[in-house]
Amino acid sequence: LSDRLTETFRNLRTKGKLTAADIDGTVREIRRALLDADVALPVVKDFTAKVRERALGDEVNKALNPAQQVVQIVNEELVAILGGEQRRLEFAKNPPTVIMLAGLQGSGKTTFAGKLAKQLQSEGHTPLLVAADLQRPNAVTQLTVVAEQAGATIYAPEPGNGVGDPVRVSRDGVEHARRQQHDIVIIDTAGRLGVDAELMKQAADIRAAVDPDEVLFVIDAMIGQDAVNTAKAFQDGVDFTGVVLSKLDGDARGGAALSVASVTGRPIMFASTGEGLDDLEPFHPDRMASRILDLGDILTLIEQAQSAFDEAEALKVAEKLATETFTLEDFLEQMQQLKKMGSMKKMLGMLPGMGQMKQQLEDFDEREIDRTEAIIRSMTPGERRNPKVLNGSRRLRIARGSGMTVTDVNQLVQRFEQAAKMMKTVARGGTPNIPGMGAM
Ligand code: GDP
Ligand code: MG
């Protein structure tokens, strides 16, 4: 798939200024890539329109590297849709917190119920699993097994007790939790293979009866183009407060995530990534963005663009050194550039073949830069321009102001001096390098 997209970005990269035609070509390829990832067409249209508008605007025109800027816009917009409303479970002020699950049959509700129970249990909660799927004969048995594996308690109607009423079981389950002091109730409900009026009514009735704090809509990431219709049907029929994306361990590209998030505006809260009860993760919008657009190759291009950028910066710095004006301000600026790259670390972590850069980022500690920044911010402009004036009492003042120790301040000044020395070598024609960061 992304060969073409990669090619498109590569072509962009070799250009300086981008024309409207360049951008249209790129937007066309992004559109193709999204459709390949099974993102629903209306969502793709909205998305590409937004990217195109931003790409034609000033931020790209004025960017040092316009192509890189376009890639960043694409990534930002993806993350915005996927994670604009990212949030965690909300617990009720008066326990029990009631969490109801809804979704098609086979979407992964019962499995997720077990995973969530196990996770909550490990966090010190006392979840009660309520078996309100009385549709399939073995659904209660399945939840019983899952509960046992999760080490959680289950509330279920007596076996062989005729056809149960899921609304009543749900209500009784919550009542039982209150009496037995379970602080969380997870209600596992029935699903059908397709969207079905009777099923919706049942789910809506359960919702009305127990007034849950969270209704989580579980959807199979492999569902593809059906994602939009299914999600809309559940939103209209039951409504939900959050989304669980299941079977992300499969080879689905995750277009369903973008479709559901975009069409329903509800946050995706969990990623279910396997059949085991430990295969549960909070949802990461940035990872999903990479997965959807196959950003691996594109990030390589960013990396190339970035190194070109750094070279240009290094030249600028060399020039400053030649005129002896390299200051702590410049030093800080360089550090911050590194930090920008560091924030890609997470995304890179899941990408294959990022070899060298990944390793460099592994060695790189963002907090280091925060500390450096704190110290330099506590200096006066005069001190930043001329660190030679930093005597003992000034260093003590800076340490206090930045919440660091005098040793930290000393180390920073020392590193700056080393860096400045190194930069001098650069200025005399040595190999450009970024000071102060070892492997970087
Ligand atoms: P329900 O009908 O919505 O309750 O769905 P189930 O929880 O019974 O899951 C249906 C099938 O999907 C079962 O075979 C599960 O083992 C499987 N399953 C559920 N979640 C995941 C997941 O995240 N990854 C994988 N690979 N399989 C899953
Ligand atoms: Mg089930």
Automatic annotation (TrEMBL):
Alphabetized UniProt keyword annotations: Cytoplasm, GTP-binding, Hydrolase, Nucleotide-binding, Ribonucleoprotein, RNA-binding, Signal recognition particle
GO BP annotations listed: SRP-dependent cotranslational protein targeting to membrane
Catalytic reaction equation(s): GTP + H2O = GDP + phosphate + H(+)
Record has Nucleotide-binding as a keyword: yes
Binding site for GTP: 103-110, 188-192, 246-249
Parts of the chain that traverse the membrane: none
InterPro entries: AAA+_ATPase (IPR003593), P-loop_NTPase (IPR027417), Signal_recog_part_SRP54_M_sf (IPR036891), Signal_recog_particl_SRP54_hlx (IPR013822), Signal_recog_particle_SRP54_M (IPR004125), SRP (IPR004780), SRP54 (IPR022941), SRP54_GTPase_dom (IPR000897)
Subcellular locations according to the entry: Cytoplasm
Gene3D superfamilies for this protein: P-loop containing nucleotide triphosphate hydrolases (3.40.50.300), Signal recognition particle SRP54, nucleotide-binding domain (1.20.120.140), Signal recognition particle, SRP54 subunit, M-domain (1.10.260.30)
GO CC aspect terms: signal recognition particle
Record comment regarding domains: Composed of three domains: the N-terminal N domain, which is responsible for interactions with the ribosome, the central G domain, which binds GTP, and the C-terminal M domain, which binds the RNA and the signal sequence of the RNC.
Family, per entry: Belongs to the GTP-binding SRP family. SRP54 subfamily.
Subunit structure: Part of the signal recognition particle protein translocation system, which is composed of SRP and FtsY.
NCBIfam families reported in the protein's UniProt record: ffh (TIGR00959)
Designated name of the protein: Signal recognition particle protein
